[in-house]
Amino acid sequence: MRIFIALLASSLLFVSPCLAAPADAKDDLARAKKALADAERMVADVRKSIASHADVLADVGDDLEKARKDQATLLPLLKRAEEDAKSTLTMVKSLAAERKAAREAAAAAVRDAERGVTEARTAYDKQVKQEEALVAANDEYRKARQAVDDAQKTVDDARDRVLKQLEQEPAFQEMRADVDRLEKQVQAARDAKSPDLPAISQRWIEAKGKYESARLARVDADRAFQDASTNLKTVRAALTQLHSKLTGDIGIAEDVVAAKDRLDDAVKRLADAKRTLATADDDLRDTETIVTQRERSLREWQTLPDRLADHVAASQERLKTVGDALTKLTRDLDLANQRVDAAQDAVADAEREIAKK
Taking a C-beta distance cutoff of 8 angstroms, is the pair 353, 20 a contact? Predict the structure, then answer.
């Protein structure tokens, strides 16, 4: 601006011919022409800048119009998406509440099963002590008890033999490998907090169930296992009969075999309850992870309208800035045209002064 004012001031020296010495009329004419050329160049520069700003203004206007259209189009969609996200979050939270209740119930079942094991073990220990007294007094009962233990070992050995042979078969090795592979995928999905965890876990459970069922079916179909199981039932029945005979006169309330069976059942119930609790813990943890993900997603949907509004506001501010700059350039163009007019007058005056001579 200082340069523009200086050039404008220098050009005004030629507005009146009386300001220049007559002997320097040619020099005055040269200076006037130079000032005119400078003024015309300034006009061209300002017009070029105005054209450039006008293009920018048009682009900014287009951007603002697009931002407003996007805002008008997307806001209803974002609103529906937000409502869907809220609905999904509500459902997932409801599922989390259900799984939390299931987890608490499973924990209570574990505590009940632990008490059951304690009670069953106490009863069994009592019966063992009574049995020991009978064994010490009756050799026939000791032999019958040993027969039950031997029969049980035979059943266990038969089962172990079948399972050991089974593990050597390619088909069952493949089933086992599939179970192990899916278990690793479950762990990886759990560590990564993947939304695919429920589906992967279901495939793992199905594969494991198929594998265990195949193992059980093979054991049950083994002839040696069947014979051993039948013999175990027979000697147990004989032991029970003998026990009843021996204890009938002294009023023993529970025999050792029944107490041991109840203890075994209690231990099994406890193991089952712990597995159920572990599954409930996993389900609850997975569901809480999904809740966190859904809450984050909802927050993102809720920020999008503000981001659209910020984009519109930024476009409006830029439009104002470019418009203000264009207004200033228009004023500069008026001043530059005034300078051209003044320089043209100075040139004309200088030429008339020379013509007089």
Answer: yes
Cα–Cα separations (whole angstroms), residue 215 to 172, 173, 271, 276: 9, 11, 20, 22
Phi/psi of residue 175, each to 5°?
-60, -45
Dihedral sign computed on CA atoms, order 265, 266, 271, 273: positive
Q: Which helix (H) or strand (E) holds 201?
A: helix 197-221
Largest CA distance in the chain: 163
Share above pLDDT 90 across residues of the chain, in percent, rounded to a whole number: 22
Residue 22: the pLDDT is 52
CA 274 to chain centre: 29
Residue 177 has pLDDT above 70, yes or no: yes
Rounded to an integer, what distance in angstroms lies between the CA atom of residue 357 and that of residue 354?
5
Backbone angles phi, psi at 252, to 5 degrees: -70, 125
Domain ranges of the chain: 118-299
pLDDT in tens, 38-54: 878 888 888 898 888 88
pLDDT at 247: 64
Least confident of 74-78, 142-146, 157-161: 74-78
CA–centroid distance for 254 within its chain: 57
* C-alpha 56, offset from chain centre: 42
Contact 186, 204 (CB under 8 A): yes
Q: Is 252 left (phi over 0), alpha (psi -120 to 50) or beta?
A: beta
229 vs 243, 255, 256, 303, CA distance in Å? 21, 21, 19, 69
Nearest to 11 by CA among 45, 41, 34: 34
94-104 tens-digit pLDDT: 888 888 898 89
